Protein backbone atom coordinates (compact mmCIF):
# COMPACT_ATOMS: atom_id res chain seq x y z
CA UNK A 1 0.00 0.00 0.00
CA UNK A 2 2.94 2.32 0.72
CA UNK A 3 4.10 2.07 -2.89
CA UNK A 4 0.63 3.00 -4.15
CA UNK A 5 0.52 5.94 -1.76
CA UNK A 6 3.89 7.18 -3.03
CA UNK A 7 2.67 6.90 -6.63
CA UNK A 8 -0.45 8.91 -5.77
CA UNK A 9 1.66 11.61 -4.11
CA UNK A 10 4.03 11.76 -7.10
CA UNK A 11 1.04 11.99 -9.45
CA UNK A 12 -0.43 14.83 -7.40
CA UNK A 13 2.82 16.79 -7.48
CA UNK A 14 3.01 16.37 -11.27
CA UNK A 15 -0.55 17.68 -11.71
CA UNK A 16 0.08 20.67 -9.42
CA UNK A 17 3.37 21.52 -11.13
CA UNK A 18 1.80 21.36 -14.59
CA UNK A 19 -1.15 23.47 -13.44
CA UNK A 20 1.18 26.10 -11.97
CA UNK A 21 2.96 26.38 -15.31
CA UNK A 22 -0.44 26.86 -16.96
CA UNK A 23 -1.44 29.56 -14.47
CA UNK A 24 1.74 31.55 -15.02
CA UNK A 25 1.60 31.29 -18.80
CA UNK A 26 -2.08 32.22 -19.01
CA UNK A 27 -1.75 35.25 -16.73
CA UNK A 28 1.12 36.60 -18.84
CA UNK A 29 -0.78 35.95 -22.07
CA UNK A 30 -3.91 37.61 -20.68
CA UNK A 31 -1.94 40.72 -19.71
CA UNK A 32 -0.29 41.04 -23.13
CA UNK A 33 -3.51 40.38 -25.05
CA UNK A 34 -5.54 42.80 -22.92
CA UNK A 35 -2.98 45.52 -23.62
CA UNK A 36 -2.96 44.81 -27.37
CA UNK A 37 -6.76 44.42 -27.55
CA UNK A 38 -7.48 47.70 -25.78
CA UNK A 39 -4.88 49.54 -27.86
CA UNK A 40 -6.28 48.11 -31.10
CA UNK A 41 -9.96 48.41 -30.08
CA UNK A 42 -10.33 44.71 -30.94
CA UNK A 43 -13.15 42.86 -29.18
CA UNK A 44 -11.71 39.57 -30.42
CA UNK A 45 -8.33 40.11 -28.76
CA UNK A 46 -9.92 41.34 -25.51
CA UNK A 47 -12.20 38.27 -25.51
CA UNK A 48 -9.12 36.11 -26.10
CA UNK A 49 -7.47 37.74 -23.07
CA UNK A 50 -10.52 37.02 -20.91
CA UNK A 51 -10.41 33.44 -22.16
CA UNK A 52 -6.82 33.16 -20.93
CA UNK A 53 -7.95 34.27 -17.48
CA UNK A 54 -10.60 31.53 -17.45
CA UNK A 55 -7.83 29.08 -18.36
CA UNK A 56 -5.82 30.25 -15.35
CA UNK A 57 -8.93 29.76 -13.20
CA UNK A 58 -9.30 26.25 -14.62
CA UNK A 59 -5.75 25.44 -13.55
CA UNK A 60 -6.42 26.78 -10.05
CA UNK A 61 -9.53 24.57 -9.81
CA UNK A 62 -7.48 21.60 -11.01
CA UNK A 63 -4.97 22.18 -8.18
CA UNK A 64 -7.77 22.44 -5.62
CA UNK A 65 -9.36 19.24 -6.93
CA UNK A 66 -6.03 17.40 -6.83
CA UNK A 67 -5.44 18.50 -3.23
CA UNK A 68 -8.94 17.35 -2.24
CA UNK A 69 -8.49 14.02 -4.02
CA UNK A 70 -5.18 13.44 -2.21
CA UNK A 71 -6.80 13.66 1.24
CA UNK A 72 -6.33 10.50 3.28
CA UNK A 73 -9.33 8.19 3.80
CA UNK A 74 -11.47 8.97 6.82
CA UNK A 75 -14.48 7.51 8.62
CA UNK A 76 -16.97 9.11 6.22
CA UNK A 77 -14.95 8.29 3.10
CA UNK A 78 -13.04 5.05 3.79
CA UNK A 79 -12.12 4.67 0.10
CA UNK A 80 -10.52 8.12 -0.02
CA UNK A 81 -11.48 11.26 -1.93
CA UNK A 82 -10.19 10.41 -5.42
CA UNK A 83 -13.54 11.01 -7.11
CA UNK A 84 -13.15 14.72 -6.35
CA UNK A 85 -11.01 14.87 -9.51
CA UNK A 86 -14.04 13.95 -11.62
CA UNK A 87 -15.94 16.87 -10.09
CA UNK A 88 -12.97 19.10 -10.88
CA UNK A 89 -12.94 17.94 -14.50
CA UNK A 90 -16.66 18.75 -14.71
CA UNK A 91 -16.10 22.27 -13.34
CA UNK A 92 -13.21 22.90 -15.77
CA UNK A 93 -15.38 21.66 -18.65
CA UNK A 94 -18.17 24.02 -17.56
CA UNK A 95 -15.71 26.93 -17.60
CA UNK A 96 -14.67 25.99 -21.13
CA UNK A 97 -18.35 25.90 -22.12
CA UNK A 98 -18.88 29.34 -20.57
CA UNK A 99 -15.89 30.70 -22.49
CA UNK A 100 -17.40 29.39 -25.74
CA UNK A 101 -20.75 31.05 -24.98
CA UNK A 102 -19.01 34.33 -24.13
CA UNK A 103 -17.00 34.34 -27.35
CA UNK A 104 -20.12 33.54 -29.36
CA UNK A 105 -22.10 36.41 -27.79
CA UNK A 106 -19.25 38.91 -28.19
CA UNK A 107 -18.83 37.92 -31.84
CA UNK A 108 -22.54 38.36 -32.55
CA UNK A 109 -22.46 41.78 -30.86
CA UNK A 110 -19.53 42.74 -33.07
CA UNK A 111 -21.54 41.79 -36.18
CA UNK A 112 -24.58 43.78 -35.01
CA UNK A 113 -22.52 46.77 -33.89
CA UNK A 114 -19.36 46.74 -36.05
CA UNK A 115 -16.31 48.80 -35.16
CA UNK A 116 -13.05 48.96 -37.08
CA UNK A 117 -10.00 47.66 -35.20
CA UNK A 118 -6.57 49.27 -35.39
CA UNK A 119 -3.76 46.72 -35.56
CA UNK A 120 -0.01 47.37 -35.49
CA UNK A 121 2.99 45.23 -36.37
CA UNK A 122 3.73 44.82 -32.64
CA UNK A 123 0.24 43.49 -31.96
CA UNK A 124 0.62 40.97 -34.78
CA UNK A 125 3.92 39.74 -33.33
CA UNK A 126 2.40 39.38 -29.86
CA UNK A 127 -0.57 37.43 -31.23
CA UNK A 128 1.75 35.14 -33.19
CA UNK A 129 3.85 34.51 -30.07
CA UNK A 130 0.65 33.77 -28.10
CA UNK A 131 -0.34 31.13 -30.63
CA UNK A 132 3.02 29.37 -30.31
CA UNK A 133 2.90 29.50 -26.50
CA UNK A 134 -0.65 28.09 -26.44
CA UNK A 135 0.23 25.21 -28.77
CA UNK A 136 3.23 24.26 -26.63
CA UNK A 137 1.30 24.68 -23.36
CA UNK A 138 -1.76 22.78 -24.62
CA UNK A 139 0.26 19.88 -26.04
CA UNK A 140 2.35 19.61 -22.88
CA UNK A 141 -0.63 19.79 -20.49
CA UNK A 142 -2.67 17.28 -22.46
CA UNK A 143 0.27 14.85 -22.69
CA UNK A 144 0.90 15.04 -18.94
CA UNK A 145 -2.84 14.61 -18.31
CA UNK A 146 -2.88 11.40 -20.35
CA UNK A 147 0.29 10.13 -18.68
CA UNK A 148 -1.02 10.58 -15.14
CA UNK A 149 -4.67 9.87 -16.05
CA UNK A 150 -5.96 13.31 -15.02
CA UNK A 151 -9.22 14.32 -16.70
CA UNK A 152 -8.81 17.88 -15.42
CA UNK A 153 -5.38 18.30 -17.02
CA UNK A 154 -6.57 16.74 -20.28
CA UNK A 155 -9.52 19.16 -20.31
CA UNK A 156 -7.19 22.10 -19.65
CA UNK A 157 -4.81 20.95 -22.37
CA UNK A 158 -7.64 20.55 -24.88
CA UNK A 159 -8.90 24.02 -23.95
CA UNK A 160 -5.44 25.50 -24.50
CA UNK A 161 -5.22 23.93 -27.96
CA UNK A 162 -8.67 25.33 -28.76
CA UNK A 163 -7.37 28.72 -27.62
CA UNK A 164 -4.45 28.35 -30.02
CA UNK A 165 -6.96 27.89 -32.84
CA UNK A 166 -8.92 30.90 -31.60
CA UNK A 167 -5.78 33.06 -31.40
CA UNK A 168 -4.75 31.85 -34.86
CA UNK A 169 -8.09 32.96 -36.26
CA UNK A 170 -7.76 36.34 -34.58
CA UNK A 171 -4.23 36.65 -35.99
CA UNK A 172 -5.42 35.68 -39.47
CA UNK A 173 -8.29 38.17 -39.35
CA UNK A 174 -5.88 40.89 -38.18
CA UNK A 175 -3.52 40.20 -41.10
CA UNK A 176 -6.44 40.18 -43.58
CA UNK A 177 -7.69 43.49 -42.18
CA UNK A 178 -4.23 45.10 -42.41
CA UNK A 179 -3.72 43.94 -46.02
CA UNK A 180 -7.20 44.21 -47.54
CA UNK A 181 -9.16 46.23 -44.97
CA UNK A 182 -11.68 43.37 -44.62
CA UNK A 183 -12.96 42.88 -41.03
CA UNK A 184 -13.93 39.18 -40.57
CA UNK A 185 -12.86 38.59 -36.97
CA UNK A 186 -16.43 38.46 -35.65
CA UNK A 187 -17.44 35.73 -38.12
CA UNK A 188 -14.33 33.71 -37.37
CA UNK A 189 -15.08 34.17 -33.66
CA UNK A 190 -18.49 32.54 -34.14
CA UNK A 191 -16.96 29.53 -35.91
CA UNK A 192 -14.35 29.10 -33.17
CA UNK A 193 -16.99 29.50 -30.45
CA UNK A 194 -18.96 26.62 -31.99
CA UNK A 195 -15.80 24.46 -32.00
CA UNK A 196 -15.11 25.29 -28.35
CA UNK A 197 -18.71 24.51 -27.36
CA UNK A 198 -18.49 21.14 -29.10
CA UNK A 199 -15.23 20.31 -27.29
CA UNK A 200 -16.74 21.45 -23.97
CA UNK A 201 -19.78 19.22 -24.49
CA UNK A 202 -17.51 16.21 -25.09
CA UNK A 203 -15.46 17.00 -21.97
CA UNK A 204 -18.61 17.40 -19.85
CA UNK A 205 -19.95 14.08 -21.16
CA UNK A 206 -16.68 12.34 -20.25
CA UNK A 207 -16.65 13.83 -16.73
CA UNK A 208 -20.29 12.88 -16.12
CA UNK A 209 -19.60 9.37 -17.42
CA UNK A 210 -16.72 9.00 -14.93
CA UNK A 211 -18.92 10.19 -12.07
CA UNK A 212 -21.76 7.83 -13.01
CA UNK A 213 -19.40 4.88 -13.26
CA UNK A 214 -18.44 3.80 -16.77
CA UNK A 215 -17.19 0.46 -17.99
CA UNK A 216 -13.66 -0.34 -16.87
CA UNK A 217 -10.78 -0.04 -19.29
CA UNK A 218 -10.71 -3.20 -21.43
CA UNK A 219 -6.93 -3.55 -21.39
CA UNK A 220 -6.77 -3.31 -17.59
CA UNK A 221 -9.59 -5.79 -17.02
CA UNK A 222 -8.10 -8.28 -19.48
CA UNK A 223 -4.68 -7.95 -17.86
CA UNK A 224 -6.15 -8.60 -14.39
CA UNK A 225 -8.02 -11.65 -15.69
CA UNK A 226 -4.82 -13.01 -17.21
CA UNK A 227 -3.00 -12.53 -13.91
CA UNK A 228 -5.68 -14.44 -12.01
CA UNK A 229 -5.91 -17.18 -14.67
CA UNK A 230 -2.17 -17.94 -14.32
CA UNK A 231 -2.70 -19.19 -10.77
CA UNK A 232 -2.62 -22.96 -10.38
CA UNK A 233 -6.08 -24.45 -9.90
CA UNK A 234 -7.97 -21.67 -11.68
CA UNK A 235 -9.94 -22.92 -14.72
CA UNK A 236 -11.58 -19.63 -15.65
CA UNK A 237 -12.04 -16.04 -14.51
CA UNK A 238 -15.44 -14.31 -14.68
CA UNK A 239 -17.53 -11.44 -13.29
CA UNK A 240 -14.60 -9.09 -12.82
CA UNK A 241 -15.92 -5.84 -11.39
CA UNK A 242 -13.69 -2.78 -11.03
CA UNK A 243 -15.12 -0.18 -8.66
CA UNK A 244 -13.50 3.16 -9.37
CA UNK A 245 -12.72 5.56 -6.50
CA UNK A 246 -10.72 8.06 -8.53
CA UNK A 247 -8.13 7.86 -11.33
CA UNK A 248 -6.08 4.65 -11.01
CA UNK A 249 -7.79 3.78 -7.71
CA UNK A 250 -9.73 0.52 -8.04
CA UNK A 251 -11.31 -2.03 -5.73
CA UNK A 252 -12.07 -5.26 -7.57
CA UNK A 253 -13.96 -8.51 -7.19
CA UNK A 254 -14.10 -11.59 -9.39
CA UNK A 255 -15.22 -15.21 -9.63
CA UNK A 256 -12.95 -18.13 -10.49
CA UNK A 257 -13.80 -21.67 -11.54
CA UNK A 258 -12.07 -24.34 -9.44
CA UNK A 259 -12.48 -28.09 -8.96
CA UNK A 260 -15.36 -29.08 -6.71
CA UNK A 261 -13.03 -31.21 -4.58
CA UNK A 262 -10.86 -28.30 -3.40
CA UNK A 263 -10.90 -27.79 0.37
CA UNK A 264 -11.66 -24.51 2.12
CA UNK A 265 -8.00 -24.27 3.16
CA UNK A 266 -6.85 -24.69 -0.47
CA UNK A 267 -9.33 -22.07 -1.69
CA UNK A 268 -8.19 -19.68 1.04
CA UNK A 269 -4.54 -20.14 0.04
CA UNK A 270 -5.42 -19.61 -3.63
CA UNK A 271 -7.33 -16.40 -2.81
CA UNK A 272 -4.41 -14.92 -0.89
CA UNK A 273 -1.94 -15.69 -3.70
CA UNK A 274 -4.24 -14.21 -6.35
CA UNK A 275 -4.94 -11.04 -4.31
CA UNK A 276 -1.23 -10.44 -3.72
CA UNK A 277 -0.38 -11.00 -7.39
CA UNK A 278 -3.12 -8.68 -8.68
CA UNK A 279 -2.02 -5.89 -6.36
CA UNK A 280 1.65 -6.40 -7.19
CA UNK A 281 1.11 -6.28 -10.96
CA UNK A 282 -1.76 -3.81 -11.29
CA UNK A 283 -2.00 -1.84 -7.98
CA UNK A 284 -5.62 -3.01 -7.77
CA UNK A 285 -7.06 -4.29 -4.50
CA UNK A 286 -8.94 -7.55 -5.10
CA UNK A 287 -11.36 -7.33 -2.19
CA UNK A 288 -13.34 -10.48 -2.94
CA UNK A 289 -12.75 -13.65 -4.91
CA UNK A 290 -15.86 -15.79 -5.36
CA UNK A 291 -15.82 -19.42 -6.41
CA UNK A 292 -17.65 -21.42 -9.05
CA UNK A 293 -17.26 -25.16 -8.44
CA UNK A 294 -16.54 -27.32 -11.51
CA UNK A 295 -17.81 -30.91 -11.48
CA UNK A 296 -14.96 -33.39 -11.72
CA UNK A 297 -14.77 -37.10 -12.55
CA UNK A 298 -17.89 -37.37 -14.74
CA UNK A 299 -17.83 -37.61 -18.53
CA UNK A 300 -21.62 -37.46 -18.59
CA UNK A 301 -21.64 -34.07 -16.85
CA UNK A 302 -18.94 -32.82 -19.24
CA UNK A 303 -21.08 -33.80 -22.23
CA UNK A 304 -24.14 -32.17 -20.66
CA UNK A 305 -22.18 -28.96 -20.03
CA UNK A 306 -21.01 -28.86 -23.67
CA UNK A 307 -24.51 -29.49 -24.99
CA UNK A 308 -26.10 -26.78 -22.84
CA UNK A 309 -23.34 -24.30 -23.72
CA UNK A 310 -23.99 -24.99 -27.40
CA UNK A 311 -27.73 -24.40 -26.90
CA UNK A 312 -27.16 -21.16 -25.01
CA UNK A 313 -24.68 -19.71 -27.50
CA UNK A 314 -27.09 -20.30 -30.39
CA UNK A 315 -29.31 -17.51 -29.06
CA UNK A 316 -28.96 -14.03 -30.52
CA UNK A 317 -27.08 -11.80 -28.07
CA UNK A 318 -25.72 -14.61 -25.87
CA UNK A 319 -22.10 -13.67 -25.13
CA UNK A 320 -20.96 -16.19 -22.55
CA UNK A 321 -21.99 -19.05 -20.28
CA UNK A 322 -20.01 -19.77 -17.12
CA UNK A 323 -20.28 -21.08 -13.56
CA UNK A 324 -21.82 -24.38 -14.70
CA UNK A 325 -22.40 -26.84 -11.86
CA UNK A 326 -24.71 -29.79 -11.23
CA UNK A 327 -25.78 -30.56 -7.67
CA UNK A 328 -26.47 -34.27 -8.07
CA UNK A 329 -28.25 -34.52 -4.70
CA UNK A 330 -30.97 -32.08 -5.75
CA UNK A 331 -30.66 -32.56 -9.53
CA UNK A 332 -30.13 -28.81 -9.89
CA UNK A 333 -28.18 -27.33 -12.80
CA UNK A 334 -26.75 -23.85 -12.15
CA UNK A 335 -25.01 -21.51 -14.55
CA UNK A 336 -24.73 -17.81 -15.44
CA UNK A 337 -25.35 -16.37 -18.87
CA UNK A 338 -24.19 -13.00 -20.20
CA UNK A 339 -26.47 -11.39 -22.77
CA UNK A 340 -25.66 -8.35 -24.88
CA UNK A 341 -27.30 -5.04 -23.95
CA UNK A 342 -28.13 -4.57 -27.65
CA UNK A 343 -30.94 -7.17 -27.52
CA UNK A 344 -33.99 -7.75 -25.30
CA UNK A 345 -32.05 -9.42 -22.50
CA UNK A 346 -35.06 -10.63 -20.54
CA UNK A 347 -36.67 -12.21 -23.60
CA UNK A 348 -33.48 -14.03 -24.59
CA UNK A 349 -32.93 -15.15 -20.99
CA UNK A 350 -36.44 -16.59 -20.74
CA UNK A 351 -36.02 -18.40 -24.07
CA UNK A 352 -32.80 -20.00 -22.83
CA UNK A 353 -34.34 -21.18 -19.56
CA UNK A 354 -37.38 -22.56 -21.36
CA UNK A 355 -35.29 -24.40 -23.97
CA UNK A 356 -32.89 -26.13 -21.57
CA UNK A 357 -35.73 -26.98 -19.15
CA UNK A 358 -37.75 -28.63 -21.92
CA UNK A 359 -34.80 -30.64 -23.20
CA UNK A 360 -33.71 -31.81 -19.73
CA UNK A 361 -36.91 -32.09 -17.66
CA UNK A 362 -35.16 -34.35 -15.15
CA UNK A 363 -33.21 -31.34 -13.84
CA UNK A 364 -34.14 -28.15 -12.06
CA UNK A 365 -32.44 -25.12 -13.62
CA UNK A 366 -31.08 -22.14 -11.71
CA UNK A 367 -29.93 -19.70 -14.38
CA UNK A 368 -28.57 -16.25 -13.49
CA UNK A 369 -28.78 -13.39 -15.97
CA UNK A 370 -25.31 -11.90 -15.58
CA UNK A 371 -23.94 -8.54 -16.68
CA UNK A 372 -21.01 -7.89 -18.98
CA UNK A 373 -18.93 -5.67 -16.68
CA UNK A 374 -15.49 -5.62 -18.28
CA UNK A 375 -15.46 -6.97 -21.86
Task: Give a description of the structure.
- This protein is an alpha/beta fold.
- It folds into two domains: 211 residues, Cation efflux protein transmembrane domain (Alpha-lytic protease prodomain-like); 153 residues, Cation efflux protein, cytoplasmic domain (Alpha-Beta Plaits, 2-Layer Sandwich).
- The protein contains ten helices and six strands, in the order αααααααββαβαββαβ.
- The strands form two sheets. A three-stranded mixed β-sheet has the order 1-2-3, with helices on one face. A three-stranded mixed β-sheet has the order 4-5-6, covered by helices on one side.
- Helix 10 links the parallel strand 5 and strand 6.
- The model has no long low-confidence stretch (mean pLDDT 84).
Summarize the SSE layout with pairings.
Blueprint: H1 2-40, H2 43-69, H3 84-112, H4 121-147, H5 151-180, H6 185-212, H7 218-229, E1 236-244, E2 250-259, H8 264-282, E3 285-294, H9 299-313, E4 318-327, E5 332-339, H10 345-359, E6 364-370
Parallel strand pairs: 2-3, 5-6
Antiparallel strand pairs: 1-2, 4-5
Helix pairs in contact: 1-2, 1-4, 2-3, 2-5, 3-5, 3-6, 4-5, 5-6, 7-8
